[in-house]
Specification:
Elements lengths: L1 H14 L1 H9 L3 H10 L6 H13 L1 H4 L1 H10 L23
Length: 96
């Protein structure tokens, strides 16, 4: 049921240009969740994550909003730097 609330919020955001701009400009998941709460939707990050497959099926309906939400809530999103894996800085072990 909460996934439906997340989708309802996104539909409202797609219909309201001011809200859509706020969601699109969000840099963190918490910002989107706070925007939803301000609009009266009690949803969690998990609810938005569950809504991602539906958004992926209908990206044209949500427009730019879909891309912004997918970047934040899609499983491929992580907090690692774009440079990739951090190099190993430890000491190698010596084998006799």
């Amino acid at each position: 049921m909460s996934k439906e609330k997340a989708l309802d919020f996104l539909k409202q955001a797609a219909d309201c240009s001011a809200l859509s701009e706020q969601v699109t400009a969000a840099d963190q998941k918490a910002e989107v969740i706070d925007l939803a709460k301000q609009q009266g939707y009690e949803i969690s990050e998990d609810d938005m994550t569950k809504a991602v497959p539906v958004i992926q099926e209908k990206p044209g309906f949500f427009g730019e909003l879909a891309q912004a939400v997918l970047e934040l809530f899609a499983p491929a999103h992580d907090d690692y730097p774009a440079t990739g894996v951090q190099p190993y800085t430890g000491m190698p072990t010596r084998k006799g």
